[in-house]
Amino acid sequence: MVKFDKLTVPAEGKKIEIKGDRLNIPDNPIIPVIEGDGIGRDIMKATRRVLDTAVEKTFNGKKKIVWFDIYAGEAAQAKYGEVLPKDTFEAIKHFIVALKGPLTTPVGGGYRSLNVTLRQVLNLYACVRPVRYFEEVPSPVKHPEKMNVVIYRENTEDVYAGIEWAEGTPEVKKLINWLNKTYKLNIRADSGVGIKPISITGTERLIRKAIKFAIEFGRKSVTMVHKGNIMKYTEGAFRDWGYKLATREFRDHVVTEDELWSQYDGKVPEGKIVIKDRIADSMLQQILTRTDEYDVVATPNLNGDYLSDACAAQVGGLGMAPGANIGDFIGLFEATHGTAPKYTDKDMVNPGSLILSGCMMLEYLDWREAAELIYKAMGETIRQKRVTYDLHRLMEGATKLKTSEYASAIIENMG
Ligand code: NAD
Q1: Would you give the DSSP letter of residue 132?
Q2: What is the rounded distance in angstroms from the CA atom of residue 373 to the CA atom of residue 415?
Q3: What percent of the chain has pLDDT over 90?
């Protein structure tokens, strides 16, 4: 058993175990939970109530999440004197699946974002963002209900790797001189320079995850979104390695878009997933104009950043967008918004993003029926126009609920 400095593991509950390439989920898994700063307290309370009730109702009390409070951000500062204590990393590594509220990024030198640090230290290489529409949520497009995508965004490479040199520094001068001399280039002397690494390792593990998800959840296609026409050896390679991986490791499950036309006259054979690719700029148009032709998306870091928010906007904004950061096994499920400090402890904000992240977590545990119950109940609550302030101000004839009341309304709608 791992030893923690200042944490006491709950007496009831069991640890999730890794068996081969799968997780073995007990009926009462111990799930570490970081409440988070700011609005974290309010939305985590609401989320735990909704998840607990859904699990209880779905499995008639035979299954239960055993929550295990761990600390990051301000709460960790108060308890440990540091914002990200070793206990927190150890607990997530040991118990594998965790839920997390938003964390303040301390302003000023010395800190990287806590969220980024958690992802890097735990090697959570896939940022997963499902985007779906809930009826009645105000949207800027005519058919928001056509959107139902799950974006797998690479989380560790690309221009986000943090390899950059500022203009004018001795380092950048040395680099520019070397590049210009060695490769006969003409990089301007007054440039800053960044490096964009994209590897076979990083690409394959991400696309493998996206395809496995598509198979397990019966999705129709996986689209690789890249800018390979311009950046051939990074983004283009991402696409090429992706096709190779798909046909090498998942041959029985997939058909490429080329094969679809050359061998199947454009008709998808029963049970097959179509592997296709789109150039990023074209994808940003197509997701608007041919929304329902896209399903699972796998993409390098920067494209994924743009595309996730663009898709979320189409179904009514970031307020209800859930997310997860996932590694080989570890899954950290978290809201996509921040701590909204001015609403701290006001019992006012929308817990939707964190509740839906909790649903992703239930699906990760393969407790899909419980997640479905929440999707239905939340859908019903929004259809009844019983919503928190953020949606209330955009919806005509809606009833404004507090965070806690909204959670109660969802629970009531579970029947
Ligand atoms: P924010 O997402 O916290 O808030 C921006 C605005 O969005 C809020 O003022 C509020 O009007 C609205 N909003 C956010 N969440 C909402 C909800 N659940 N319901 C209703 N309205 C909501 O972004 P910010 O103000 O730029 O950042 C505040 C802090 O959060 C910063 O310290 C930042 O570093 C941190 N942050 C953390 C995460 C994370 O933990 N994943 C993500 C983004 C920002």
Answers
A1: E
A2: 10
A3: 92
Residue 23, strand partner residues = 18
Other C-beta atoms closer than 10 Å to the C-beta of 412 total: 14
Task: Please give the number of the atom of ligand 1 that sits closest to the Cα of 353.
Answer: 18
What is the rounded distance in angstroms from the CA atom of residue 5 to the CA atom of residue 112? 24
Judge if the beta carbon of residue 349 lies within 6 A of ligand 1: yes
How distant is the alpha carbon of residue 133 from its chain centre? 16
The stretch 402-413 carries a mean pLDDT of 98
Burial of 257 (0-12, 13-18, 19+ CB in 10 A): middle
Q: Which of 101, 129, 128, 126 is nearest to 115 (CA)?
A: 101
Q: What is the pLDDT of residues 235-277, one digit of tens each?
A: 999 999 999 999 999 999 999 999 999 999 999 999 999 999 9
Query: Which residue's CA is the nearest one to ligand 1's atom 20?
Result: 349
Q: Please state, in angstroms and rounded to a whole number, the distance separating the CA atoms of residues 281 and 84.
A: 38
342, two tokens: 């001015």
Separation of alpha carbons 339 and 268, rounded Å: 44
| Cα-Cα-Cα-Cα dihedral sign, residues 193, 199, 204, 209 | negative
Per-residue pLDDT tens over the stretch 317-347: 777 899 999 999 999 999 989 999 999 999 9
Cα separation, 363 vs 253, whole angstroms: 21
Compute the distance between CA of residue 405 and CA of residue 245 in angstroms, rounded to an integer.
47
As a 3-state breakdown, the chain gives helix, strand, coil percent values, each rounded to 5, of 45, 20, 40
* Beta carbons of 99 and 47 less than 8 angstroms apart: yes
Which structure tokens are listed for 298? 């796998």
* Token pair in block for residue 306: 């743009």
Distance of alpha carbon 138 from the chain centroid: 23
**H/E element holding 164?**
strand 164-165
Give the CA angle between residues 88, 92, 95 to the nearest 5°.
Answer: 130
DSSP E strand boundaries for 247-292: 254-256, 273-279
Q: Which residues are marked as active site?
A: 160, 227, 281, 305
Contact 142, 148 (CB under 8 A): no
Q: Please compute, for residue 119, the number of CA atoms within 13 A of its CA located in the half-sphere on the CB side.
A: 22
Q: Strand runs (DSSP E) across 242-307, as ranges?
A: 254-256, 273-279, 296-299
pTM of the entire predicted model? 0.94
**Residue 324, ligand 1, Cβ within 6 A:** no
Residue type, 177: N
The CA 317 to ligand 1 mean position distance, Å, reads: 13
